[in-house]
Each structure stands twice: as structure tokens, then as C-alpha cells.
Amino acid sequence: MDDRNNQLYLGAGVATGEMKRILVTGALGQIGSELTLELRKQYGADNVVATDLRNDVPKDFAESGPYENLDVTEGSSLLNVVKKHKIDTIYHLAAILSGVGEQRPELAYSVNMNGLKNVLDVAKDRGMARVMVPSSIAVFGPSTPHDNTPQETVLRPTSMYGVTKVAGELLCDYYWKKFGLDVRGVRYPGLISWKTPPGGGTTDYAVAIYHEAIQKKHYTCFVKESTVLPMMYMPDALRAIIDLAKADGNRLRYRNAYNISALSFDVAELADSIRQHIPEFTVAYEPDYRQQIADGWPHTVDDRAARLDWDWKPEYDLSAMTEDMLSNLGRLIETPA
């Protein structure tokens, strides 16, 4: 969305402004569990309400701030939580990821589409300051350029997760153009974190491999050795979405779906980086249905728009990420909660 449309649609009457009371959906997922805690550091623990379907909330997470059990496909329940806590900003992370989505496509469609529309409707009707909705490289497909994938390009995914993410991007654009709702987001690559276990995504091999390297000194990978995908370490991922939320809207050419890039490597390179610390580590390869999904995704993406519009820049390379992953994950495995 350019500046002309920015000015045009702000006349729709939807309030925009400072974020004060934040709701995080999917707060116990891979991104949400870390993003919630970071937002609580920045905005105050009582001002960030975590929500998820799970009742088995980790003690330290539950004690760090308010928590509500919430199914985002139930619009009335979402509205009640928003009213109760006087929410003005939503980080919408509740979603069914690519691997699970191929096993349960009906569930993926229901959660990813109906949940998003409920969030957008509540935000619109309540005049919220901002809604943050992450997208994914899953929006791309086999007909998309795989190298230096442009910001604006062919979006023809072959997974249900990818289909819902494309539709979600378009729906977010619609609510911005039609109602002036300030919806923003990034297209995340594969995300790697030591704090949360793999959660059903195609890129989760890049998390599981570290766990197995420490615990078993061996990993059986579900994609081929030569598979190259864009990746990002979680500290960079958190910074990206928080920085975008704070960015000057007048600088943003796109209201959502910014390409962001940090790392690209094949599985062999990842294994080699681990062997710098665990020389005896070995990997076997048994590709499954997730290989076809991975083959439709980019090798590298062009994130110049994000760098120009809101000064995006990653901090971690492969070597630094591996060192940090193994150090922190090793302590976590040695002293489990």
C-alpha cells in the first residue's frame, strides 16, 4: 500500500495509534512462547495477554503475566477476551503449520482462515491500533523464482498451509484498503530456536537436528542433503516483527507480507556447522512428504523492501547461530524443567 492509499483509507474511521494493551494468540507455539515474554519485557507483564488452546501452561510462563484459554475460531470468545482486557493490539500467531496441515487440511483451513477473519473483524469493530499477522515463505510455490525471490512475485503454493497464507495476505490487504485497519506482517523463513521443540513445520528439521546432535549424535533427516531453504534464528525473528510493529506507517509500501531474509544453507552445511562442535555427529536422509513441500519453496529471498522501509537487518549468521543453539540447548537438556 503506497502513501496515497494510506491517506485515503485512514478516512474509514478506524483508530490508529500507540500500542498499549497487547493480545498474543498462539502464545504457546514456537514464536509465541518467546515473543510473549519479549513483549512483556518491553510493554510490561500485565499489558501483554497470552492466549492459546492449551491448559498445560508452563509455570514460569503463566506467572509472568495474564493468560486466557482461547480458540480463535470462536469469534465470540475472542471478543470477550479483548473486551475483558481492553486490548488495542493483536499479534495473531495461532496457526496450523505446513507438516500438520498436510495431514489435517480441514483443520488447517479452519484455524488459519476462520481464526484470522475473526481477529480482523474484532480488531476492525473495536478500532484497534494495530494487528500483526505473520506470513511465511510457504506462500511461494514451484512456479516462483527460487533464487532471490522478489517481494512481488507468483504465489502458487502446493500445500494447504501455503494456500491459507496466500489467502491470509490478501485478506489482510483487503481490511487495510477497505477499512483502514493497520495490519502488518513479515514472510517468515524457517525459524530456529533452542527454547521450543519442533512444532509440525517443514523446516523443523533445522531445529530437530540440534536436539538429536546433542542427545544421540545422529539425526535422520526428512528432507534431502542438498535441500536449501531460507532460515532465521529466533532472536532475529522476534526483532523483525516487533520492529515492524513500531515502524512509521508512512514509510511502509506494503502493509503486510514483507520478505525478510537472514540465512540460506543446505542440510549438509548445517550438519557441518554442528560438527565444528560435535565432530562425531552423523546424519542419514529419508525424505518424506515434506520434501515436496520444501522443493516448492525459495532458496533465497529478496528482502530489500524491508531493509529500505523499516531498516530490517539480521544479526546472526550460521556459525553464530549454531554456537548459541548448542550452548543453550545443551544446558536445557542437561537440566530439564
Which terms would index this structure?
single chain; 337 residues; alpha/beta; Rossmann fold; UDP-galactose 4-epimerase, domain 1; 2 domains; three-stranded parallel β-sheet; 13 helices; globular; disordered N terminus
Explain what the structure shows:
There is one protein chain. This protein has 337 residues and is α/β, with parallel strands linked by helices. The chain has 2 domains: 3-189 and 233-259, Rossmann fold; 191-231 and 262-298 and 316-334, UDP-galactose 4-epimerase, domain 1 (Alpha-Beta Complex). The chain contains 13 helices and 14 strands. The chain has a 6-stranded parallel β-sheet. Helix 6 (105-126) packs parallel to helix 7 (160-179).
Task: State the gist of this model.
With about 325 residues, the chain is of the alpha/beta class.
**CATH homologous superfamily (4th level) name of the largest domain:** NAD(P)-binding Rossmann-like Domain
Strand content: 5-15%
Distance between the first and last residues' Cα: 46 Å
CATH architectural label of the largest domain? 3-Layer(aba) Sandwich
Spatial order of strands in the largest sheet: 3-2-1-4-5-7
Question: Which geometry do the CA atoms define?
Answer: globular
**What's the SSE pattern?**
HEHEHEHEHHEEHEEEHEEHEEHEHHH
Overall radius of gyration: 19 Å
Please give the number of β-strands: 14
